[in-house]
Amino acid sequence: MTTLPRPTLDLSADEARRIVLRAQGLLGAPDRRAGVRGVLRSLGAVQLDTISVLARSHELIPYARLGAVGRKAVHDAYWTATVGGAAPVRPHAFEYWSHAACILPIEEWPHFAFRRRAYRNRPHWNHELPGGAYEQVIKQLRTEGPLTATELGGAKRTSEWWDWSGAKVAVERALMYGEVVCVQRRGWKRVYDLAERAVPQELLHDELDDTECLRRLVRLAGRSLGVGTRADIADYHRLKGEQVDAVLADSGLVPVRVEGWSKPAWADPEALATPPRGRHRTTLLSPFDSLIWERARTERIFGFTHRLEAYVPRHKRVHGYFAMPVLAGGRLVGRVDPAREGRTLVAKQITLDGARAVPAVAQALVEAASWVDCTDVRVERVDAPELHAPLTQELARILA
After folding, report:
1. Where are the beta strands (DSSP E) in the chain?
2. In terms of domain of life, where is this protein from (predicted)?
């Protein structure tokens, strides 16, 4: 393990929390001119997921930072390429494996070369690749242009979600290798194209060695986190601990001590240059938001236990299918498990951090309802029954 310098700066738990919030775009005035693309670049990765309750997670994440940005505007910001006069088409993003399946800024394509090489050298796969299927997929994309797996010959052989067709196995393998790229989502289907067409030529190369790639991703993770432990930094783009150790000392991150943290930490030097100030965002957060996607870090920073229960059997759920933490005043003050019934946002279950959280949760619910074109909010259950009436009264006051 590389010997790292001793920390040169002490941070209080509150200072660290505020640095994290600013780094994640949830403290201070949002950069509305940069918009959704600015959010993507500052976060470095926006996680995708199949679940859609109020909206899909990659839509909820810019909403949490920018407010009521239109869902079509979010899609266009990620996937609509720019054409400037005689200049070539330039995509803004690509989809690849980072923290999970994520939308990533297109300029980071070269820095995932280490992962593409690892996939090419991978000896075992969950799906067997039929003979000739890979070559056929590449030929078809070259001839016909961007296509979905269905258009390539079918996504599945049977109705079972895991039973991929040969074409689907081939195109997903090509995606991992970097020969194919997802250029957009059509509905929820990936649209594939050849990387040689979709990725700008100056970025297409895989010339960066693993060390250069890892150094960049560690630096980016530190910037997006603001401050984090070795485990936090590794988790952001799902690196191995030893990969982080190999480059952390020359990543540009600054070693710090954080009050109450049992492990050493590293901070973005720019985050330390000026104290975080500005308005705190009040909002519902996707369970896949990068502010809270790592449970141990969320507990350490906010004293808040967060768990997605969508994949937990119904009778074992505590907070609901898609419980969304509520951020207000720089704290996590409750949870809402939402649903929609026509033009009504239904809060099926709400957990509140005491009566003081009522105004913030009501505000977050009304703003979210307006964003998804709902005109009313109905509360079904509040875990503290005595807070049901104050919450519904506050909602009625805001909606009036």
Report:
1. 10-11, 46-47, 93-97, 101-105, 180-186, 189-194, 227-229, 254-258, 265-267, 283-284, 324-328, 331-341, 344-352, 376-379
2. Bacteria
For residue 336, the enclosing domain spans 307-399
Q: In whole angstroms, what is the distance from residue 204 CA to residue 206 CA?
A: 7
Query: For residue 51, which of 366, 324, 336, 378 has the smallest C-alpha distance?
Result: 324
Q: pLDDT tens digits for 137-147?
A: 999 999 999 99
- Distance of alpha carbon 142 from alpha carbon 225, whole angstroms: 39
What span, in angstroms and rounded, lies between the C-alpha atoms of 145 and 152? 11
Tell me if 349 sits within 8 A of 383, measured CB to CB. yes
Residue 133 lies in a domain: no
- Cα 308 from Cα 317, distance rounded (Å): 9
CA distance 257 to 10: 5
Residue 383 burial class via C-beta count within 10 angstroms: exposed 0-12, middle 13-18, buried 19 and up: middle
Give a yes or no: residue 10 inside a domain.
no
Three-point CA angle 304, 51, 100, nearest 5°: 70
Cβ–Cβ under 8 Å, residues 182 and 95: yes
In a domain, 43, yes or no: no
For residue 62, the Cα-to-chain-centroid distance in whole angstroms is 10
Predicted confidence (pLDDT) per residue in 211-242, tens digit: 999 999 999 999 999 999 999 999 999 999 99
Against a cut of 0.85, is the pTM above it? yes
